[in-house]
Amino acid sequence: MKIKIPELLAPAGSMESLKAAVNAGADAVYLAGKQFGARHYAANFDNTDLKEAVHYAHLRGVKVYVTVNTLIKDHELPDLAKYLLFLYESGVDAILVQDIGVAHIAKELVPDLNLHASTQMTIHNTEGVKWAAEFGFKRVVLAREMKLAEIDEINKNIEPREIELEIFAHGALCYSYSGQCLLSSFIGGRSGNRGMCAQPCRKPYDLILGKKDEYGRPINTTKVEIMQSIIEHQKSKIFEVKTKEKYLLSTRDLAIYEYLDKISKSSVSSLKIEGRMRSPEYVAVVVSTYRKALDSIKKGRWKPRKRDIDDLKLAFNRDFTGGYLLEKDESSVMSRDRPGNRGVYIGPVTDYKKKDKEVVIEIKNQIIPEKGDGIVFINKDQNKNDYGMVIHESPAIYKNKATFTVQRPLKPGTLVYITRRKSLLDKAQKIISDDKHQIKINLDIFIENNGSISLQSKFNGPDNALIDLKLVPDFKMEAAVKKPVTEEIIEKQFRKTGGTPFDIKNMNIHYPGGFFAPVSELNKLRRELFEKIEEKLISASFPSKNKMKEAHDKLNKLLPQLDTKANNIKLDKKSISLAVYADDLDILKGAASGKCDRIYFDPFTGNAVLNCNSNLNTASTLNLINEAVSICKNTNTELILKLPKITSSRYLTSLNSFLAKAFNAGINGVMTDSIGAAEVMLNLNSQINLFASAGLNIWNYKSVEELQNIFSNFTVSPELSKDEIKMLAFNIQTRGIDSNLELLVQGNLESIVSKDCIPHIAGDKVLKNKNAEKSFMGIEDTKNHLFPIRLDNECRTHILNSVELCLVDYMPQISKIGIDTVIIDARGRTQKYAHDMSHIYKKAIEIGAKKDQKSKRELNALKNKVKKISLGGITTGNFLRGVHS
């Protein structure tokens, strides 16, 4: 019995990697052009190369998905639209998008081009998937943090075949939910949302605990030493070795190979291998390993093989994990002791022969060291550097010991790993160069009594559609004078398919006999046939001429709408309101007494230690909201409930009855970062006023245009510069979009949200702290920058920027760039901070509305006040510089 298996989707960061993926057995590849792709530092494909890549893949029955998955600024929209049309013309099978505005344009311009929702859209609940299906997405790449049971539950709640579900199967894991990481952007302007992440999560950090002062800043801090137990075998004895965990945000690599049979029976449609920055050899090894496994599963006979697992490890690994998808112990997703390639463990050093400069290793694995292997010696003392080398001679193997020459002395107990295996690289090169894909052709050759020839061929095209091709050449055979051509000679010449992806499966020759033709003419005719078949196969994925004309006409109408001349932007000065994020009643009271206009109340995300010890208590949370409503009514302050950045289906279900009561209590609206959560809110109360938070990544007016029927207010991305915000606001106002824009102007902004629970690793001593309510937790980098940590009540870690954003002295400019509301993020701080900061910004808004010579001096005085109560100093963030292009 054949079992249905998911698609195997492989990375192609270069043409060589694409060939490796195709020849290793991928069903589809994903790649990027030179623009708009989220792997800026991969080789990628220019337009000519991209067409060649599509040609190569399609000719071998492999689909091509192009990533258009960065966030797009308004001035880039015309080029984006042209690029989408180019991709449509090139016959790509789908595009992956993150930006809702890009999806909006694609649907309008090239509706036949399949849309896949990138994992960077952070779709992680049932309602989010339903929204994607209704929008017109063919597939959703789900957040890596979802469990397999959650995915199957989503599938049960959507219409059969309504939308495909894709998951990551192998490769590097991001610490943060994809699309929600701004750490690299905040630190140095290299945005992960633009494919330029500097990978700060692979750097070392210390866990810091302390108390808070009256403004919520850390005092009396101490470092918490995090230790990991490693079981080591040496000389037939077992030791427990303690190693320091310094890489607190470093994840293991995902590898679901061992669980493939279980996943193949699930609702998952596609398995994605991560690795566009990896080598072609890596792609060849990983794809071929998964291909063999899936093919065996399809035949109903498969078991994981240790040799395959070792090959995957030797290709690259930071230790493997089943990820959040499969692991019961979610701490096993992390690899906090070191962030680099682990290779495969051989065993410990047992002896060093000083005279011969030879090391003796006890072999603890089935893998025996070979000549050409790259190995690394890892010291138990983490203060000493590791040592790597290549084995230049065949090691001497005796029983379970390997001996070979090294360049430096090594202590017994030093751990030895193979990180590169030459024989595996040779195997990978063979896979890359071995084009196994064969297009099966049924060929009928008709030779008439007058010598005329016609060729009738049948073969399968895209999605196995049967294609007929008839070729009638000008060439005619002549009556033979001496030696006529036989059927055997004709068949022999037409079966010469070497160097092509074709294979003549069945050939029927209808030949009366008695004719002659030079072999060179028969060969020429065969080549012409193959060229025509190739053209037919490639063109089968192209849109029709009518469809292309229609798309070009749409583009010509669309481009003038998208084109905004920056020098023509003029906006009226706005009267700005002030909002504050608060996560407890004390901060809410401070904000209200500071005369802010609106409070976004987030009782779901708060103190790291407290939330690690408790789950959502709807009764007590409802009491908090009732109190908050009372306070805001007394101070004439608008109250909006702010949901956590990530809201699982289970969490939203648990909130249902609670939210109905909260609406009745008198909250004025709900703020969320998730379209799925917004859909749930509207299902509960269709009249509720919804506010889009920064996690929705609003970068362009097309995103606002698409979502204006869901949200009334949009917080613009903190990655945009003031000029980019101004253009966004101008386009909204001049196109009649009835939406308000909000801007974060103060606070340690949220830079990461992760499913990992950092407080948990600190142990009971920290978690059972009686003074937890007043405690501070953060992580500190090697430059002594301290990043505060907060937790939501599903135990997700929220890491804030180490420096406070402060735009208080830019209020006059902000009033002229189309912003309706400015926001202070006071969560995790104190009542005094919320009160004083609200008061400062209220004053700044008043000053910004005036035009006199004192304004600059007064704003600088307010800025100095902000400096004195800030956590980690102040920065203008991306407001002036923007992110790197």
Automatic annotation (TrEMBL):
InterPro entries: Pept_U32_collagenase, Peptidase_U32, RNA/ubiquinone_mod_enzymes. Coiled coil: none annotated. Residues 416-537 form the Peptidase U32 collagenase domain. It comes from the Archaea. PANTHER family: 23S RRNA 5-HYDROXYCYTIDINE C2501 SYNTHASE (PTHR30217:SF10), PEPTIDASE U32 FAMILY (PTHR30217). This is Peptidase U32 collagenase domain-containing protein.
